[in-house]
Amino acid sequence: MVKAIQIGLGHWGFSWTKEVIPKVPSVEMVGYVDTNPEASERLQTELGIDPKFCFSSLEEAAKKTDAVLAICTLRTEAHYPVVKRCLELGYHVIVEKPFTSTIAQGKELVTLAKAQDRVLMVSQNYRHQPAPIAAAKLIAENQFGVMNMVSIDFRRHGPSQGYRYWDMPDPLLADMSIHHFDLMRYVLGEEPVRLSCRTWNPPGSPFQFHPSGAALIEFSKGTMVSYRASWMNTGAVTPWAGEWVMDAAQGQIHWTSRDHFRDRTGPDILTLQPLDQEPRPIPLDPVQFPDRKGTLNAIAKVIETGTVPVGFSSGADNLGSLALVQSSILSASRGGDWVEVAEVLG
């Protein structure tokens, strides 16, 4: 059993408190931290959390609890200073994506975690779903030979689907696409080399910054990824992880994941289509701890056993996904010019 504190009890943090943490039996909560007393009062009123477990500062929680894990569920700009302080205090840390606002900040935290001999994990929850797990395994086993081209589409219409962050900078690339960028690296087992990206804001959009974009991304083994995504698309809604077509020398792998839309919750789907044959659906193994429950369970197991599993989204690993985000934003700012990921990653 891993004793933990949670830092950040706002809208998304409350979702962690209510919907995620209680469903991971390997984690025992001993403290909740937020500077806003209303956030703590909500936990007490709506979830029955004992006031003695609620603290107004990290320092107070550190003094009065014996936690070893910090669950950081704050706004992005608070990630770096809070995670840094947690590591300095000796906590293992799991933090929501995006990991940090800059590559330099991310590198600093990775170095600090190593120096402190602490586990630092980024909650890339889309990795903990049946379809991408199966797809990654098929690619690793060379199911259809050398991978050639991957096409990914993500379509949502923010104004009609309850989206509310109209003034968020880079609402597509930094907030949503990071999931898809991370899945590219995880499923392909390759690292990105260079990319070209364009973004735009359609007429009549309530977004202050660009909600739509397209990118062409080249990976280290030669795989080319064509990526199209939008928060302002009026077409058929895709699952949150997007619609994937992965083309290899001897066939294709089609898959979708996290199909949650309004009252519809569908299963992950993966289909194999050997060259010149009909597609056939493949049964997927269930995941005991899916989505965010999977990331929290994963870091608890690493802390308990000292063994890091394949696909674990450590801070060091996640620098590659953050670099994809920063590279795509840089390319878009240059009108779609090709950007070498190494230029951003350093």
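Next protein, fold it too.
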Amino acid sequence: MKFWRPGITGKLFLAIFATCLVLLVTMHWAVRLSFEHGFIDYIKRGNEQRLQGLSDALSEQYALHGDWRFLRNNDRFVFQILRSLEHDGDEDRPGPGMPPHGWRTQFWVVDERGAVLVGPRSPVPPDGMRRQIKVDGQQVGEVIASPVERLTRNTDINFDRQQRRTSWLIVGLATLLAALATFPLARGLLSPVKRLVEGTHKLAAGDFTTRVTPSGEDELGKLAQDFNQLASTLEKNQTMRRAFMADISHELRTPLAVLRGELEAIQDGVRKFTPESVASLQAEVGTLTKLVDDLHQLSMSDEGALAYQKAPVDIITLIEMAAGAFRERFNGRGLQLRLSLPDRATVFGDRDRLMQLFNNLLENSLRYTDTGGELLITGELSARSLALHFSDTAPGVNDEQLTMLFERFYRAEGSRNRASGGSGLGLAICQNIVAAHNGTLSASHSPSGGLRVTVDLPLDPDLPRDA
């Protein structure tokens, strides 16, 4: 047997509706108890006033007649007194919806010996309300009224039932209104959640273009904004992954095609197997090795798997060592390498990774600077950081290319030819190394017409700036 299981809308509706229902029933019983207690108190006060008034009136009549013979079997006389009391106390009469209790209350008048003079034939209740009738300070009789509790249980039973029916009718109408108001409220509150659920299903199915409309600035609205941000990030990652795979296949295809062509030419006898052909093959293998190494370095830096053994490092000495190793290659390309750096600056970092950073930046300028140009490395020392500027000469890059320099496999020369460019991964690796040292890496136009790459690294806080 399959049971109905409500969804989140049904559960919220049932929760709100059940809360409203509990409140309505609680209020109903509270009003009923308050009404019953108030009604009894009202009857008690009214009966006390009538008893007192009737006692005073009978006391005057007894004083005029001298005995109770005028009252024996004269119920009409008592009712006339009660009627006059009702007209004299209109402000104390029941309001709208209240029964005229004064006319239905049972009264007894007894003499000083307890004999009934006026009243119903039923026995005088021992727990009834009593008022003494006194003349010249002596008790000559009593006026007795039926208990209020007995009155409300018997005489006013119809009125009580009417009030109960009315009260339950109000509860029923209020419950219906609560149901009618709760259902659209539940749907309205959960409509943003439903949109998020539908968007999540599409996202799980691989549709990263899906977006949801934020419902406001509340928690659900912020959740929708976070969802859109997540979807945008996943879409961007998917695009980057596809481009990354396409770039890798392209980068591998070129040297592999050259290797295959060289080997087929040697195999077919078109080209002889000479030291020169072996050197050409080794150059292509070296290109492949460099690409694989760069991919490996990039993947490890992305995952944070590169081992960083940080210690205080004199970064000025490190740059001078890297520049010294590249100076001969720069001279061989007709390029000038100049340095304008502070005397000393200490950072807390990994010596090998920082050397790799500077080697990549020097290699980048070496590959992309025209013959006859130069690379100027300058340093700006502040209280907390060191800014290193690698500024080379033409050719430069446009504004659009500046935003893409740190993307993987991007080379600003506009072609995929490895004769001038590297793997296109060097700057991406540099960015990861700088980020691991809590620094920033940025690119801008060089004053000398080329590219300026700025490395901003924090100084070692435990050492003085010129330590």
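About the second fold: The two ends are 81 Å apart (CA to CA).
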